[in-house]
Automatic annotation (TrEMBL):
<feature type="transmembrane region" description="Helical">
    <location>
        <begin position="56"/>
        <end position="79"/>
    </location>
</feature>
<keyword id="KW-0472">Membrane</keyword>
<keyword id="KW-1003">Cell membrane</keyword>
<feature type="transmembrane region" description="Helical">
    <location>
        <begin position="91"/>
        <end position="112"/>
    </location>
</feature>
<protein>
    <submittedName>
        <fullName>Potassium/proton antiporter</fullName>
    </submittedName>
</protein>
<feature type="transmembrane region" description="Helical">
    <location>
        <begin position="362"/>
        <end position="382"/>
    </location>
</feature>
<keyword id="KW-0812">Transmembrane</keyword>
<dbReference type="Pfam" id="PF00999">
    <property type="entry name" value="Na_H_Exchanger"/>
</dbReference>
<dbReference type="InterPro" id="IPR038770">
    <property type="entry name" value="Na+/solute_symporter_sf"/>
</dbReference>
<feature type="transmembrane region" description="Helical">
    <location>
        <begin position="295"/>
        <end position="318"/>
    </location>
</feature>
<dbReference type="InterPro" id="IPR036721">
    <property type="entry name" value="RCK_C_sf"/>
</dbReference>
<feature type="transmembrane region" description="Helical">
    <location>
        <begin position="240"/>
        <end position="257"/>
    </location>
</feature>
<feature type="transmembrane region" description="Helical">
    <location>
        <begin position="6"/>
        <end position="25"/>
    </location>
</feature>
<feature type="transmembrane region" description="Helical">
    <location>
        <begin position="330"/>
        <end position="350"/>
    </location>
</feature>
<feature type="transmembrane region" description="Helical">
    <location>
        <begin position="269"/>
        <end position="289"/>
    </location>
</feature>
<keyword id="KW-1133">Transmembrane helix</keyword>
<keyword id="KW-0050">Antiport</keyword>
Amino acid sequence: MTGLYLTLAVGTGVVLVSVAAARLATRLGMPVLLAYLGVGLLLGQDGLGLPFDDAALAQALGLAALAVILVEGGLTTAVSDVRPVLAPATVLATVGVLVSVAVTAAATHLLLDVGWQTALLLGAIVSSTDAAAVFSVLRSVPLPKRLTSLVEAESGLNDAPTFILVLTFSAATLEAVEPLPTLVAMIFQLVAGGVIGLLIGAAGAWLLRRITLPTSGLHPIAIVACGVLAYAVAGLTQTSGFLAAYLAGLVLGNAGLPHRRATRSVAEGLGWIAQIGLFVMLGLLVTPSELPSSVVPALVVGAALLLLARPVSVLLSLAPFRVPLREQAFLSWAGLRGAVPIVLATIPVVTGAPGSDQVFNIVFLLVVVFTVIQAPALPWLARKLRITHHDVGPDLQVELAPLDAMDADLIHVTVEPGSRLQGVYLPELRLPPPAATTLVVRGPDTFVPDEHTRLRVGDQLVVLTTPRVREATERRLRAVARAGRLAHWFGESGHPDPATRPEPAGRLQTAGPPTRRR
């Protein structure tokens, strides 16, 4: 038990330190991944001495974490935002990835004098972008919605082809890789994985509409589980699990299921837990004393990727679409790397590919160094390219505050057949202040009531109150439901209540039915 308590204490301490470090990184305009990686490095072998060198375990846990992150990304993405940019995003995530891999590999082969297989492996690993890293920096920059949606959609889609390419270059020698069959196999895996994700997402949405779970807290769990199931089924059928997870989340998140806000909150929480665990683990896996020899190769590969491969891939991919050159320039610089390249770099380590340890160190350094270079410059670059809207403020960050934080309670009331709430005007409810009826749902209509609103059978009322007067509000609503508008003279049973004094006649007159009705 002592070991259990110690493990829990250390684990929760790491989470809390990571959360605090993320806050510091955000203030500095850096993606939070740097904070989490820093915590892992401090805990690792060259820091506090916590040993961790199991690349196979890191790969398994990393892929599981990425599945949760992709499901969360799909659940929190609006189809209405993705639909207008789906075509260019798909081309960027497929053709753009192939171009980026080819250009990065050629530059790496020529500049570092490494073999073509290692060069192609490096190019494939670093060709995936990270939307979370971009948006954590651009949260306060008023960019065009089309541009942010394009970056988000590309980042959600390009993980799948890069994963397939990394597996291909890690598991077989370059001589055994045939370009045309490999391309056909990749297209099949992407299409089949996408179909599996869409089918499981649609089936999950259909099922959740038709079953009633005993508590609302089970809905988010069931929805996230459907997304992870899509990832697992696609993996078992040798198709793209990444794409299946993202598309299943996209379908479920836009299916109009109940408890959408709760589902989104739970999914975001699980996504954050996955990110914290993933980056801290990857930081633990790195041995800082082995990194200096990889600094120059990381800078060379990163510079080739940022200054040559990414711009060429964006230019060629978006040529058929009417994307302004200024936005293309911004997209080229905004291709931040995050968790996926580091996790993908564990695959050649596990398969025992030649030079895999060096590849992992190069990728780790590249992600860290070029995130530090690119991220702070993104807001400045957006202003210099004049793609920000000067007449529009930054996107509003809306936070759903829990009612307990506002010291408030919600009471949901339905006017049942036979209830004497029928025909009562809102002023006649005489709820104890500060309680108030804030919303009425009447059939397909939802409106904010006023003093002219008269209750009907089937109406659903949302009453906002405080803990201090909640019980009195409930008693008052029950009394009116039993005794009608004259319930101020009666108790809840409908019989005279001697403890309740009738109000003065003048006040009774002002509570009469208004002349205008709704």
